[in-house]
Structures are given as structure tokens and as C-alpha cells.
Amino acid sequence: MKNKILGSALMIAGTTIGAGMLAMPLTSAGMGFGMTLVLLVGLWLLLTYTGLLFMEVYQTARQQDVGVASLAEQYFGIVGRVLATFSLLVLLYALLSAYITGGGSLLSGLLPQIIDEQTTLKVGILLFTLILGTFVVVGIKSVDGLTRLLFIGKIVAFVFVLLMMLPKAKLENLTAVPLDNLLVISAVPIFFTSYGFHVIMGSINSYLEADIKKIRLAILVGTLIPLVAYVLWQLATHGVLTQSEFVALLSQDPTLNGLVKATSHITGSTILGEMVRIFSALALITSFLGVAMGIFEGVGDLLKRFELPNTRGVLTPLTFIPPLAFAMFYPDGFIYALGWAGLLFAFYGLILPIGLAWKARQLHPNLPYRVAGGNAALIVAFVMGVIIMVIPFLMQNGILPQVAG
Q1: C-alpha separations of 37 from 83, 181, 254, 350, 400 in Å
Q2: Residue spans per domain, the chain
Q3: What's an example Gene Ontology biological process for this entry (predicted)?
Q4: Phi (first) and psi of residue 116, to 5 degrees
Q5: What is the mean pLDDT of the chain?
Q6: Hey, is 210 helix, strand or coil?
Q7: Which of 110, 255, 314, 361 is the most exposed place for a label (fewest CB within 10 A)?
Q8: 35/41 Cα distance (integer angstroms)
Q9: Other CB atoms within 10 A of residue 52 CB
Q10: Taking 70 as the threshold, does the pLDDT of residue 200 lie above it?
């Protein structure tokens, strides 16, 4: 596999695998491993499919280095651009604010106390953003290099966690059936955001110079890595903990920390908790890099559209100052926005690429590359996208059961 393809695949995987992966077993507690596996594979197929749709539509782009919002305007006019830009930037600014807060908190724990805890936290947030933001500003090649290094660390930590947990897995735990079949439906919106690599498709297209074969390989490899990691992690946690232990865990401490305590107790090792924390930190950093790169590309695409300066000196403050300000002074604003992140991603990662592909196929019937499945697959994927967007409202109204996320 050539160097850039591997780098692109790791950027896709790095953006996809976040620290939230470790809390996924809490969401699937009442589902059992069997249905969790079905859900993971089904959503991988759906979101890999829509990622490939973006690639298909990029064949028709007027310029090689345009963002997804420019494609949306090309096919749906200014309304398409506004919807694509709004959904992308609100989603990414909210995520980046959360990553900055989390990363700053981790870093502040390593710093000597400056005046008081709040001041130390703010210094940690600033340093975290400054250090890692520099890689994004330098360009995608530097993000590629850092992601490769961090990915090795993530793999080592993850393998260590699995080696401690998998020997404790029991077959009777893995064959448990769902406590409530509706829990599987409720878990869909939370699980599907775990395949959210679509925000860097514009950057990947430019980095691989719009080469269809290279981009396709990068997407397939880059999404298979998270799928394998998710399945192994669920296999370990579902195998170690019985369903009754899962439910008890949720009632006592429905957080990642509670899961770490329970698994540490069962494996008899305090090292496990520390390895989970290391993995969480590395996963948070690689997700930060991917999301920041997505904003950099999205804002640059917007400025280019209106013929405004889009140099790195202009893009840097527009990328980092809004989420940094909210992380330091108004965290509740973006925490509220994060509550709608799943809905925004459902539009950006499902509805938008399906709509673009539908229009592109009408206007360009002889494209060199078409994603398999034809228009029938587009319709099925669209229906699934609408259902995913409706599920949170059904949960709010008590029609579907609540799950942890």
C-alpha cells in the first residue's frame, strides 16, 4: 500500500475511533453481543457506502480541491451550500470544543498548579490547542505523520487491554439475548456516529489528488480498522461482564469510569484502568486532529466561494478561536450543541451524500466510477437515514427506551 494511501486510511480511522468508543458497551448493555455485532456491521456497511458516494460525486467537481459544501452548491444551489456548511461547522465546532476541553483537562493534570485549578485548566486548554493545532495549520502531511505515530500508541494500548480481558470472556455471556428488542433500535443513532469519518472527505480527496482507486482503498481500509476494533472491544466487555452486571453497572455509575472500575475488578489489575486512560487520551488527540482538519477545509471552502482571503493566517483563528472560547468561557453552549451532533451528522453523513449522488447520476449517467447497488441502494440508505434521524425524537417521547451514551 503506497504511503499516502496508508496515511489517508489512518487519518480516516483516527478520526473515526474516538475516546467514546470505550463507553460503547454501556450503550449496548441490554442488547447482548450478537445484536451488537449485527448493528456494528450494518452501520459500517451503511456509512462506508455513503463515504464512497462522496467519492463518486467528487468525480464531477469543477475543481479538485473544493469542499463538500461546494459540491452541495453545485447540485442544490445556495440552499445546499448553506445546509451543508451549517451542519458541518456546528457539528465540528461542537466536537472540537469538547475535544479541547477533554484534552486541556488531561494536560492540566500534568502541570503545576497556577493560581488555582480553573486557571491551570485554562492554561492546559490553551497549550493543548496551541501544540496540536500547529500540526493542522502546517498541513495535512504533518497531520498524517503525527497520526501514524499516535496510532501505533493506540494499537499498543488497545492490544494490552484486550490481552487482559479476552482470556476472562465466557461463552454464556456472549450468547445473551436482548433484554428488550427495542433497545437495538434506540442504540442506532449513538453507534452510527462512531463511523463519522465523512467530515474529512474533502481533505482526503485533495490529498490523494482525486484518484478514485486510491480514495476507495483508503476508505475501505480506514473504516475496516474501526470495525475490527469495535467488534474486539465489544467481544471483550460483553464476554467479561454478564448482562445483569452490565445493568447493575449502569444503575450505579453509567460512565466510562464505572466500566473501567468493573473490568479492573474482574481482571484483578489496576494497570488496565491506566491503559484505558492512555488509549482515551490518544483517541481524543487523533479525533481532535481529524475534526480540526475538517473545519480548516470547510471554512477555507466557504471563504474561497466568496473570494475572500483563505490563507493559513486567516483560517487558523477562524478554526480554533470559536471552539477555544466556548471551551474556556461558555462550555454549556457547545454541550447543548453536542446533544444535536447525531442529528447533524445524520444529515451530513447520510442524507447529503445520497442526495448528491442521486443528482450526479441524473446529470452524469456515464461516470467512470459508481458505487454498487444502483438507485435502489440509494433509496434504502435514504430511508435508513430518515429513520436514524427520527429515533431520538421517539426516545424523547417515551416510544423507544432510553440507552446510555
Answers
A1: 33, 14, 22, 21, 21
A2: 4-397
A3: amino acid transmembrane transport
A4: -150, 180
A5: 83
A6: coil
A7: 110
A8: 10
A9: 24
A10: yes
Give the integer Cα–Cα distance in Å for 370 and 386: 23
Side chain identity at residue 260, one-letter code: V
What does pTM read for this prediction?
0.84
What pLDDT, in 10s, does the model give residues 104-147? 877 777 777 777 777 888 888 889 889 988 988 888 788 888 88
Which three-class secondary structure state does DSSP give residue 116?
A: strand
Q: What sign does the CA torsion over 27, 238, 385, 305 have?
A: positive
**How far is it, in rounded angstroms, from Cα 222 to Cα 204?**
11
Which pLDDT belongs to residue 291? 85
Grid cell for residue 13: 480511522
List the grid coordinates of 222. 480506514
- CB contact at 8 A, 60 and 360: yes
Q: Which residues pair with 116 in a beta bridge?
A: 114
CATH no. of 4-397: 1.20.1740.10
Site of grid cell 492512555: 278
| All three cell numbers of 146 | 503525527
CA 197 to chain centre: 6
d(CA 352, CA 343): 12
| Residue at grid coordinates 483537562 | 105
Extract the C-alpha cell encoding 203.
481533505
Rounding to the nearest 10 degrees, give the CA dihedral for residues 275, 276, 279, 284: -140
Whole-angstrom distance, CA of residue 53 vs CA of residue 61: 13
Q: CA separation (Å) from 288 to 97, 201, 232?
A: 9, 16, 24
Report the alpha-carbon distance of residue 109 to residue 105 in Å, rounded. Answer: 7
User: Is the Cα dihedral 309, 314, 316, 317 positive or negative?
Assistant: negative
Cα Rg, the chain, nearest whole Å: 21
Q: How far apart are CA 198 and CA 196, in angstroms?
A: 6
CA pair distance 252, 28, nearest whole angstrom: 16
Nearest CA to 250 out of 17, 25, 98 is that of: 25
For the record, the C-alpha cell of 313 comes out as 493566517
Q: Which one-letter amino acid corresponds to residue 12?
A: I
Query: Does an H or E element contain 386, and which?
Result: helix 374-396
Evaluate if residue 286 carries a pLDDT over 90. Answer: no
CA-wise closest residue to 354 among 228, 198, 213, 153: 198
Distance of CA 337 to the CA centre of its chain: 16
Residue entry with cell 470495525: 227
CB 405 within 8 A of CB 342: no
